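Attaching the record inline, Q. Sequence:
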Amino acid sequence: MSDCSSSGSDEELDPEIELLDELGGTLTKWTNYIHGWQDRWIVLKGNILSYYRSADEKEFGCRGSICLGKAVITPHEFDECRFDISVNDSIWYLRAEHPLLRQQWINTIELHKAESGYGSESSLRRHGSLLSLTSAASGLSTTSASSCKKGYSLREKLAEMETFRDILCRQVDTLQKYFDNCADADSKDELHRDKVSEDEEDFPTLRPDGDYLLNNSSKEKLFPVDNLKGPLGIDFKGEAITFKATTAGILSTLSHCIDILVKREESWQRRLDKEIERRKRAEDAYKAALTELKKKPHYGGPDYEEGPNSLINEEEFFDAVEAALDKHDQIEEQSQAERSRASRQISLTPDTCSSISTQKYLTKVYRREVEENGIVLDPLKATHAVRRVTGHEVCHYFWDTAFRNDWETTVESFQVVETLSDKAVIIHQTHKRVWPASQREVLYVSVIRKILSTNENDPDTWLVCNFSVDHDGYPPSARCIRAKINVAMICQTLISPPEGDKEITRDNILCKITYVANVNPGGWAPASVLRAVAKREYPKFLKRFTSYVQEKTSGEAILF
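Structure, as predicted:
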């Protein structure tokens, strides 16, 4: 076995957690406000996370990538399938199909991030060891060269303090040795005195110098003072003088250090004041930027759109929708004016133009407020009257998909899914998105019928009924909210008999329109916003549509 494998170092990798070369899978990624959430093929290789439009398009190159070294992975607080990956100002919003799959992605990404060498335990340990060795070898604080030059006098005095400390330590050791020796000599003296008193008799004792001494003579002469000087050999007076001089030097040096600190305090205070001022300006700039961001009509990320946990409050939501609708109406009015001008110049006479342009519309809207599980389900009824067109013509243009794009300005795309008969079709229709509301789609059956009157005095009735259905070929889309509708356009033609034997012309006919709608928009749009939009848009829709029918039928034969 090689030395590397047998060293047992912290940098060894456990074979059980060895990472694969490349991992890939499908996640839903937030793209932009136009397309919303889209499926993307996500690839994790090393510490690089990349995404492609699909797995089949990998050969064309990735559409974006981020390095996980300093990435922050954040599971969403409310959405159990969503997690965000942020690196500085770049944020990826991702969603898995279910919470378990989301957790697997998070764990795998975190594992690759940890093994990439950024922020791992072994990496921190190696950096710490290097720092410790450097600090121990230098013996100096990790300050810059400029600060070392400015603080030279202070460090010089601190070095003197270190020298004085060593001298004091040696002097204390010397004095302690002197006191210990004195204590030992005193103990020996007491021991010998006790022994002499036990052997007390009246005969002479031989002295150390050869003379005889009686037991009751002076005992102080038994132990000459010279015996105490021998083992010590310490100049106590000199040590005391040196100790005093050393402490005086310490006090002088401390005084000098205090003077230096006082002189530098003003400089430090100015630095502190500048730092405080800098931080205050930074905080003010941050608050100003945040305030400016809140004033903008657009925010970044899917958190600032319609949803159960949207960060946009109801007032901001309403203002954004109203601004978008105003802009859409302005564009549509300009486009409609250009089309009308061109059409009138080609096909209409001046008298007819005057008749149409001065037409007065009377529209009344009735609405009852109904909510179910927090969703607005207000049934609506609108009545309208328009001259010079018949009920059959109004219903024909409302039902026939060949004319849908001419008058319907809210539809982005539609498709006839299935033709049930010559008067019944199934239609899939996707509406334009109005930010921050989510995009809506509807799948419905559209039927046109003529209902004969049972009373000779009452006119016949034409109606178009649109109601939602399900279809195996068009399941609900993840990027749109499937709305449910039940709508009816009911029209009757009233004829004013002409004078004499004159033929009936368009000036003699009037169409009474009753429009009823029961719509379940789904989603999480605020109720006040939905009601305000309905109040504003339904009358405009009827006026726009009936004006279109007038222009299309002008100069043509009457269709009863």
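Residues 151-274 form one domain. DSSP finds twelve helices and 20 strands in the chain.

More tomorrow.
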